[in-house]
Amino acid sequence: METAIQTEQTATIREFLQQRIGAEIAFTDEEDIFKLGLVNSLFALELVLFLENTYQVTVENEDLKLEHFSTVNNLSDFISRKKGL
Amino acid sequence: MDLELTREQKQYRAEFRHFVREELLPYANDYDKQGFIPRSLIDKLAEKGYLGAVIPTAYGGLGMDQVSYGLLNEEIGRACSSSRSLITVHTSLTSETLLRWGTTAQKEQWLPLLAKGSTLAAFGLSEPGAGSDAAGIATAYLEQDGHYLLNGVKKWITFSQVAGLFVIVATGAAGITAFLVERDTPGLTVQPLDGILGTRASMLGEIHLKDCRVPAGNILGRIGWGLQQIVNTALDNGRYSVACGSLGIGRACLEDSIEYAKSRSQFGKPLKDHQLIKQKITNMVADVKAASLLCRNAGYLRDKKNPDYVIQTTLAKYFASRMANAAAAEAVQLHGALGCHDSLSIQRYFRDARVMEIIEGSTEIQQIIIADHSIAGLGAVL
Ligand SMILES: Cc1cc2nc3c(=O)[nH]c(=O)nc-3n(C[C@H](O)[C@H](O)[C@H](O)COP(=O)(O)OP(=O)(O)OC[C@H]3O[C@@H](n4cnc5c(N)ncnc54)[C@H](O)[C@@H]3O)c2cc1C
Questions:
Q1: Contact, B137 vs B130, CB < 8 A?
Q2: B381 within some domain
Q3: Residue with CA nearest ligand 1 atom 25
Q4: Residues 24-83 (A) with a CB less than 8 A from some CB of B
Q5: Atom 24 in ligand 1: which residue has the minimum CA distance?
Q6: Contact pairs from chain A to chain B, CB under 8 Å
Q7: How confident is the model over B348-374, as pLDDT tens digits?
Q8: Cβ separation of A42 and B236 shorter than 8 Å?
Q9: What is the band of B89 on the pLDDT scale with cuts at 50, 70, 90?
Q10: How many domains does chain B have?
Q11: How sure is the predictor about A1, in pLDDT bands with cuts at 50, 70 and 90?
Q12: Which member of B103, B306, B310 has the closest CB to residue A42?
C-alpha cells in the first residue's frame, strides 16, 4: 500500500512533469513519458536536477536507466529506493 | 531572487578587472592577429586559478560560486573572447562535467591537473557532417576485449591544438557515449584549423581518430547516455560561460562607444551630443543591462541548483549572444571607418560576436528549445 509520503512524492513529481510537458497533456502514472514523445532535449538534465534538489539525493551514473525515469510511478519508486524508504 | 553581489563577489570582480587590464586587454588584438594565445598567458590564467575556478578546493580549484564564475567569464570575455573560449571548453564543458559525472578515479586523476592548468581539456562533439544535430555523429566506438576502438573526425574543436585531454563523443552498439581520450593515445592526431572569422586565437583543430584504443575506465558517464547526460550537462555549462562572455563583448562595445562619442567631433560638436548617437547608446545600455540581469539570474539559480537554471541559462545565452551582435554592429557604425579597421578592437568584437550565436547551440536551436519550453508552460521561464 502506498504511504502518505509516496502519495505526496507522486503528486510533486507529476506537478514537475506537467509543468515541463504541458498542463493540458494527459498521461497516467504508468504511462511512459519518453515513449509518448513528450519531452525535449533539456528534459533529462532538468529531471535529474529536480530529483536531486527536491529530494536531496544524488543521481549517480548507475542510476541512469530509462526505466527509473519513464513513468511517474517509476520515478517515485526510484526516489523511495534512493531514500531507503 | 537577490541579484546584488556579495562583498566577496565584488572583490573577485575587482581582481578580474585588474587582471584583464594588465594582462589581457593590451595584447588581445595581437593574439587575434597571430591566431593563438601564448603559453605565458595560459600560465598566468592558471596561476590565478582561473582555469579551475569552479573546481572544489579539494581538487586544487578555487571553489568559486557560479555568480563569481559568470563575472570571470564576463570580464575575460570583455577583453578577449579567445581567452574566454579556453575557460569555456576547459573549465565549463570539460572540468565541470567531469566533476559532475566522472568516477572517483577519473576525478582524482584529472581534476587536480585540470584545476592547475597543467593539462588543458577540449570537447570533441562536432564533426564535418554533424553540428546542431548531434545525434548524427559518425565517429564510432567498437568494443574489443574490454577496450574501445575509436574512429572518426571531430571538427572545429576549440583549443584542440594544445589540449592534453579530450572528451570525444562517439556512437556505437550501446548508443552515443562520451570517452576521455588522452592526446598521446596512438592514432590520435590534431590538424590546426586556420581561417575562422571570430575567436581567431582559440586554436581550433580537427581531431582525427584512427583505431584509438581507450580502456573502459575512460567512459565518461553512463554508456549509451552520452547525449542526454554528458553533452547536455556540458553544453549547459558552456552556455553559461558563453552567455557571460557575450555580455562582456556587449559591454566592451558600449564602453568603447561612449569613449569614442566623447572624443570624436563632427558638425562642430562631439558625437555624444548628436541625438541619433544618444539613441544608439541608450539601446546598447538597455540591452547590456538586460543581458546582465539574465546572466546574473542564471548564476543565482545555478548556485541554488534550482532546476529552472537550465532554461534560464539557455535564455541568457540566447539573449546575450544576440545582444552582443547588435551592440557590435552599432559600435562599428558609431566608430565609422575606424570601426572597420584592425587598429581598434571594435572589428574584433564584431567578428567574435558572430561566433557566439553559433556555438553551444545556435540561435535557431535555442529558439526551438525556448519556444517548446514556453509552450509547455511558462512557469520555469518567466
Ligand atoms: C569558433 C567555433 C568554435 C567551436 N568549438 C567547438 C568545440 O570546441 N567543440 C565542438 O564540438 N564544436 C565546436 N564548434 C562547432 C559548433 O558547435 C557548431 O558549429 C554548431 O553546433 C553548429 O553546427 P554547424 O556549424 O554544423 O551548423 P549546422 O548545424 O549545419 O547549422 C547550419 C544553420 O542551420 C541552422 N539549423 C540547424 N538545424 C536547424 C533547425 N532544426 N531549425 C532551424 N535552423 C536550424 C543552424 O542554426 C545554422 O544557422 C565550434 C564552432 C565555431 C564556429
A1: yes
A2: no
A3: B131
A4: 40-42, 44-47, 49-50, 52-53, 61-62, 64
A5: B131
A6: 60
A7: 999 999 999 999 999 999 999 999 999
A8: yes
A9: very high
A10: 3
A11: low
A12: B310
Residue B49 CB coordination number (10 Å): 18
**Residues B79 and B23 grouped into a single domain:** yes
Does residue B1 belong to any structural domain of this protein? no
Q: At residue A38, does pLDDT exceed 80?
A: no
SS3 state at B219: strand
Q: Taking the CB of residue B189, how many other CB atoms lie within 10 A of it?
A: 12
- Decide: B139 and B152 in contact? Cβ < 8 Å: yes
**Selection from B272, B249, B246 nearest residue B259 by Cα:** B272
Active site members of B: 360
> Cβ-count burial of A55 within 10 angstroms (0-12 exposed, 13-18 middle, 19+ buried)?
middle
H or E element, residue B367: helix B363-376
H-run or E-run covering B214: strand B205-215
Report the alpha-carbon distance of residue B101 to residue B167 in Å, rounded: 13
Domains and CATH numbers, chain A: 1-83 (1.10.1200.10)
* B81 and B108 co-located in one domain: yes
What is the interface pTM, i.e. ipTM, of the complex?
0.94
Contact criterion met (CB below 8 Å) for B27 and B91: no
Q: Which three cell numbers stand for residue B348?
A: 574584433
Which residues have C-beta within 8 Å of that of residue B368, sequence separation ≥ 6?
none
Instruction: Please answer yes or no on whether B228 and A44 come within 8 Å at the CB atom.
Output: yes
B382, part of any domain: no
Task: Tell how far the Cα of B128 is from the centroid of ligand 1, in angstroms.
Answer: 10
Q: Averaged over B311-340, what is the pLDDT?
A: 98
Same structural domain for residues B290 and B307? yes
CA angle B16, B19, B23 (to 5 degrees): 145
Instruction: Say if B377 is an interface residue toward chain A (CB within 8 Å).
Output: yes
- Mutate which of B358, B360, B369 for ligand 1? The one with the most ligand atoms within 8 Å of its CB, which is B358
